Amino acid sequence: MDLYIYYKVKDADAASLQAAVAAMQATLARRHGVAGQLKRRPEAKDGVQTWMEVYASTPEGFAAELERAVHEAGVLSWIAGLRHTEVFMDVVPCA
């Protein structure tokens, strides 16, 4: 399963959030072998940016570990609003 998590961040909080997410993703990579990506939309609107974390090919139970890591890293203190998670899986080729 691949996880796509998107959320908003104020321009003024972007650098602090980036540092927190980078540290969190490094810890997740060490503990679970999942390399996360951090992306953002190119434009900001009204001083707010949209960011996305991507975690590909996650193992069973990773979503719960990610939530725990988010709280441990203090990520929620830097975002504006909620984190939204989307889950996708590979499409199996037709036989």
TrEMBL record:
It comes from Duganella radicis. This is DUF4936 family protein. The lineage of its organism: Bacteria, Pseudomonadati, Pseudomonadota, Betaproteobacteria, Burkholderiales. Pfam families: DUF4936 (PF16290).
